[in-house]
Design goal:
By secondary structure, the chain is an alpha/beta fold. It folds into two domains: 131 residues, Rossmann fold (3-Layer(aba) Sandwich); 239 residues, 3-Layer(aba) Sandwich (Rossmann fold). Helix content is 37%, strand content 16%. An eight-stranded mixed beta sheet has the order 8-9-7-10-6-11-12-13, sandwiched between helices. A five-stranded parallel beta sheet has the order 2-1-3-4-5, with helices on both faces. β4, α4 and β5 form a beta-alpha-beta unit. The longest helix is centred in the last third of the chain and has 17 residues.
Length: 422
């Protein structure tokens, strides 16, 4: 066993405003085995295994503490990391770890969770090669953080934040909003943004940005062994000063059947090249779409105020909360509201069963959206003073972590008029 002292110096583009977990990189593909003595430690480790940042790691939990680990590794190879809970006194703990060292591979990292807040014990354990010692009780965040501190390189470039946009139904405007919000974030905050159009057969990002690149995301997906920052840079089309596009081919000359990890390498590489990666996810439910949404840093669901949209949004929210138990609920944008003569669900009635405050309610405005789409321009380029453009800029601030979502307050003037009428 070897020691490794690592400071957690990871910062996200939004300034680490969402808590310690949000600032952590995904844990690499490693094997982890935990030997616990109590449910109080086993439970947060089990919850850590379900966290999206641990999606690539393989973690197994066994009971019995250090004695069980010594017995188990008599006949089994040791993993990349062993988590050990021990309630033993200091001298007994060190003796038990000595027995473990006899059956433990020298490259295996070991973290001990003990009950004694003792500086001498900590120094002695580090001196003998333990990677980290933490004092119980521990939380799920403690477990994920200590693993990240050991296996994530703090000197590497910070990872960009991924924001996945998905529609509750087809045609609700999710792609249009994704592209316009990406453009807004790149221009408002003068920050590099990459848009990845994941709808390979029917993607519209190339049309919306008036681009016709010869290569795009398909080349990366079909040759994952070639993906690195240099190769990805050759596939990006420049849409604006700080906005790049991984365009979809938007052709039907082949079928696009992918496994669950198809886009993982592309997204991971894109996150190493830009502070923000906007993922335009089509309205499908496949293994790769499920994986992409589960691992995204933020999810934005776009829906129109109709019953089928409400049902689909509720299903998406419930499923994603289950897949991402340690993350915030998906964000919601209600689009195409107030269509003339169309019966609609009021925004407050739409949001109430979801338990989510909408980021925005965007009215039906075919003239603005149609003009922008037909000219391959963004809304902010078409009419920067339009109220919808101002709303999109406000949403961009929220997604960038520079403003919180707040319910719209009723006008004080309207309240005064109501009182005068009474």
């Amino acid at each position: 066993m070897s020691s490794l002292a690592v400071e957690n110096d990871l910062e996200r583009w939004n300034g680490d405003q969402d808590g310690p977990l949000q600032s952590l990189r995904p844990i690499p593909r490693i094997s982890i085995q935990a030997f616990c003595e109590t449910d109080g430690v086993a439970e947060p480790i089990r919850r850590a295994a379900e966290d999206r940042r641990m999606a690539k790691a393989h973690l197994k939990i066994r009971m019995g503490g250090i004695p069980a680990a010594v017995e188990f590794y008599q006949t089994a190879t040791t993993p990349n990391l062993i988590l050990l809970e021990s309630r033993a006194e200091s001298k007994e703990l060190i003796a038990q770890l000595g027995s473990l060292a006899e059956v433990c591979d020298p490259t295996t990292k070991v973290v001990v969770i003990g009950t004694h807040n003792d500086v001498w014990l900590y120094r002695e354990l580090i001196r003998t090669g333990i990677s980290e010692y933490i004092v119980a009780p521990v939380s799920m965040a403690d477990v994920v953080t200590v693993i990240a501190n050991i296996f994530v390189d703090p000197n590497a470039e910070p990872l960009g934040r991924s924001i996945a946009f998905v529609g509750a139904k087809g045609g609700v405007g999710s792609s249009t909003l994704a592209h316009n919000l990406a453009w807004a974030m790149s221009s408002l905050f003068e920050s590099e943004v990459v848009v990845a159009d994941l709808d390979l057969p029917f993607g519209t990002a190339n049309i919306n940005f008036d681009q016709d690149p010869p290569q795009g995301i398909a080349e990366a997906v079909f040759a994952p062994e070639r993906i690195d920052e240099v190769y990805l840079d050759r596939l990006l089309a420049q849409c604006a000063d700080r906005l790049s596009l991984l365009a979809a081919p938007s052709t039907l000359d082949q079928v696009y059947d992918f496994d669950g990890e198809a886009f993982s390498a592309v997204i991971d590489t894109a996150q190493r090249t830009a502070p923000v990666v906007v993922l335009d996810v089509p309205h499908v439910w496949t293994g790769w779409a499920r994986t992409t949404l589960m691992r995204a840093d933020d999810i934005v669901i776009t829906a129109t105020p109709e019953l089928a949209n409400l049902r689909n949004t509720k299903n998406l929210v419930d499923t994603l909360k289950m897949l991402r138990p340690n993350d915030e609920a998906p964000k919601l944008i209600i689009n195409q509201a107030n269509v003339p003569k169309r019966p609609e669900i009021k925004p407050e009635d739409f949001a109430e069963p979801l338990g989510i405050v909408p980021l925005a309610v965007i009215p039906f405005e075919p003239q603005l959206f149609g003009t922008a789409a037909n000219n391959g321009r963004m809304l902010g380029e078409t009419d920067r003073n339009h109220s919808i453009v101002q709303t999109i800029n406000e949403v961009a601030h929220v997604l960038a972590g520079r403003r919180e979502v707040t319910p719209k307050k009723k006008s004080t003037l309207a309240a005064l008029l109501r009182r005068l009428k009474k």
